[in-house]
Specification:
2 copies of one chain form a homodimer.
Chain A: H1 2-14, H2 25-36, H3 40-52, H4 60-76, E1 79-91, E2 95-101, E3 111-113, E4 115-117, E5 129-136, H5 139-144, H6 146-149, E6 153-156, H7 162-166, H8 170-190, E7 195-199, E8 224-227, H9 229-241, E9 244-250, E10 253-267, E11 272-282, H10 292-311, E12 318-325, H11 333-342, E13 349-354, E14 362-367, H12 378-384, E15 391-394, H13 404-408, E16 413-418, H14 423-426, H15 439-458
Parallel strand pairs in A: 5-6, 6-7, 7-8, 11-12, 11-13, 13-16, 14-15
Antiparallel strand pairs in A: 1-10, 2-3, 2-9, 4-8, 5-9, 10-12, 14-16
């Protein structure tokens, strides 16, 4: 109740501020403070995760999420468009595995292995398949053991580098592991493997499997799964004692592409309404959890931007466009659809922001702007300094998945910088749930995204183009 | 190789020490050092967990473990006896649950709940049952809502007190939660509940369910499961929005009691061979994991005691008896069988030790001896001080499950004191696996158990009786 009153009072107090210079410190501070007092984003996140649950592309959950987000944005008074996206439709099936033979096995015993199918995985026969497991550490070792691969199940036992993630390099640590998950199945398939396993790419050891995308296509589809770190280590240890044989059952289905949508909600600009500032997160999640951090916080944060500005009755010069992307996880078809629809007027895409690193504590902003544009951001960083989010980091390339094509065409990208040290503990596992999100950090998240969106939508200075196109 | 040589050299050096006062500092130090250089216990733990896997009473894994431990002890030259124990035989079946109705549910959606059946749980019909869920925090609230219980699924949403566990009170923290798991199903059943759920009793949140025993009997058997902390919180949140309905499928079987064994391996004493010092752990585990910490480290530690003393060619005055107990987890029938066989000569049970708090770093010894006996332990604590395990804590009651009847009859109990701050993260979950055990901590564990066993087996002073009988 107090929160609502405070926001209402802010609205009334700010009525005069609309006419003031749009990017003055008072307005930026007002936006930050309003976001820090609002539970709107957390409530949207709770609705998305608690009421709907998982939202994998093509699933009933994804469809319900499109409706829920669109309805919430309409309720705010935003201009809502559903942009059609044809998405891959992969459905998880049974998934079990047992080690049925290994040196030292007591007669009659088998060992259960905990695993989960990877996106795009093919199916085994319904009764499973039995094959030897060969354990490798990298692609070179795989190639060196090509003769053993045919008919075998290949396991990449690559440890996630949590120490690297702890040093603030969670993204690169993830990249080092996820390339085996993404490319490994295709390469193993082309070498004649009967199946593919990867040690889960993530940093906590609670015998939970981390799913994720693969580069598999119809031409090379084989059964592919992530095993838990514990089971990967077990198989590696048993392999040192002698040959290991596994019975593997995976029955996912690769169905025809399904109809889905990006949810687009505009807060129309005033004198520069045709120029667009995108603020976004992705609405689809993996199917094992409710995707609170990946990427519920990104979508809720972007929704929170519109709510914050609406509550303050602030009208931006450029249009601020909230997008809840569809299909980031296993195809990025949503990002491709938006780019295709806008590539002929790409200069009208002034800037684009995606939050997709979870709801950890934000400490600043990452941007792919020209070096000479960096100085323009001093006012917004000053406004964010009181909440500990005043670090501006420029890079030539930001690389948010749904925005990659825009960035390639020169649209400067922005991303909240957040603490990701525990992000990959839960990433793509059943444990990515609402309780992992701290409401105060989500408020900070909305404060960062709102203040920056407003600033971008009103800035006078030229922003230039993303450096990535200049190379 | 170095380790073997060192042990051989220790043997040769110790040949003269056998005749020396048995509890002199040199011999105690020699035992500690030999244990700290040996991989024997870790190798036994690896064999037990990696080669066999889970060892629930009545399972093929438990039978294989009896054989494996007996064979290893015979190989050491110990006198091995298999003591028959009739054990409960409970077998896990399918276990799934979905929230099929709740306020705000999008049409056609249901939410998956992650849970695992509790030991002794009854079964639902094969197709499951559907019932409202009522969420309570304690027995008083359950009683206050008696009218709602009939035909409902009762959920105890009680948060594990990790902060208490972090303060070194993991056992009491566990007790505060586990009483709802143990007694709750019976009480709910007697009040007419259709099913019982408890929030997992444990301190880490990775959406893993912690199983455990219940007090259910044939007269009151209902379906009973542990839900993950995340799912318990989800149901509690949804309950605040309105009524919640669950479809629950649990198909475990309660089979007739099965034949099993305690494995008893004696290192016979010299002049006081009829007096027994028990050193033990329990061989059975829950069925979800390989029971590395619960209680593989206890059994491996006890096996390590015999190996350490054998390797040094040390002959104790009293008989040191390694026991790998059967059925600690869901019946403590092994402890009962041993007590029944020895109760008429209970004074011959000089002392008994069980390690059942996992393989965390040991810092000392816990003992239920008379206050006046405490001073006798100075030499053994001095020997353990260099490995950081010199803390002696006396209590009137130690309470190791398999030794409870012995203690009640006056046998002084001993237990290694270990760091348990993360023990309940993994306890009774699929994640209690070999990788969680630090080999160096296991060596320290063996050092503590070996040094103390030897000391007890040779002590001249009267030990007295456990204070528990004096009350």
């Amino acid at each position: 109740m107090k929160t609502v009153l405070t926001v209402l009072m802010s609205c009334m107090l700010s009525a005069g501020a609309i006419a003031a210079p749009a990017n003055d410190p008072a307005t930026l501070g007002q936006i930050r403070d309003a976001a820090m007092k609002s539970d709107y984003a957390y409530e949207r996140l709770a609705d998305m995760t608690d009421l709907i649950g998982p939202r994998l592309s093509g699933s009933p959950g994804a469809a319900a999420a499109v409706e829920q987000v669109a309805a919430a944005m309409r309720k705010l008074g935003a201009t809502v468009t559903l942009q059609p996206v044809k998405v891959p439709h992969w459905v998880r099936g049974a998934e079990t595995a047992e080690l049925v033979d290994y040196a030292g096995r007591p007669a009659g015993l088998s060992q259960r292995v905990v695993l989960t199918a990877l996106g795009g995985s093919g199916a085994t026969p319904a009764a499973g398949l039995t094959a030897p497991v060969i354990v490798v550490r990298d692609f070179d070792e795989l190639k060196a053991r090509a003769a053993e691969v045919k008919g075998a199940i290949v396991l990449f036992d690559v440890k996630f580098d949590q120490e690297m993630a702890d040093r603030g390099l969670a993204g690169p640590a993830y990249g080092n592991g996820s390339r085996y998950r993404t490319l490994g199945p295709k390469i193993a398939s082309q070498m004649g493997a009967a199946g593919f396993l990867v040690r889960s790419v993530g940093g906590a050891d609670f015998r939970i499997a981390h799913t994720g995308a693969t580069a598999l296509s119809e031409a090379d589809r084989i059964p592919a799964a992530a095993v838990t770190a514990e089971d990967s280590m077990l198989i590696a240890r048993l392999s040192k004692r002698g040959p290991v044989k596994m019975h593997l059952t995976l029955t996912p289905q690769n169905l025809p592409d399904a109809d889905s949508f990006n949810v687009i909600a505009d807060l129309p600009g005033t004198d520069k309404a045709d120029e667009i500032v995108v603020v976004s997160g992705h609405l689809d999640s993996w199917d094992l959890a409710t995707g609170a951090n990946d990427d519920g916080t990104g979508v809720a944060g972007a929704m929170g931007v519109l709510q914050t500005l609406k509550a303050l009755n602030l009208k931006p010069r450029r249009t601020i466009r909230m997008i809840a992307w569809m299909n980031e996880e296993n195809g990025t078809r949503g990002g491709a659809a938006y780019h295709a629809a806008n590539k002929d007027s790409i200069l009208k895409q002034f800037a684009a922001m995606e939050s997709d690193s979870g709801g950890g504590r934000p400490f600043g902003i990452l941007a792919s702007v020209e070096a000479k544009a960096e100085k323009h951001f001093a006012p917004v960083m000053a406004a964010l300094q009181p909440i500990g989010a005043g670090v501006f980091t420029r890079r030539d390339h930001v690389g948010a998945a749904d925005l990659a094509l825009l960035e390639k065409d020169g649209v400067p990208l922005f991303q909240p910088q957040v603490d990701t040290s525990t992000y990959f503990h839960y990433h793509h596992t059943p444990a990515d749930t609402l309780d992992k999100v701290d409401p105060e950090n989500l408020r900070r998240h909305v404060a960062v995204m709102s203040t920056l969106s407003w600033y971008l939508a009103n800035m006078e200075q030229p922003l230039g183009r993303a450096p990535v196109v200049e190379k």
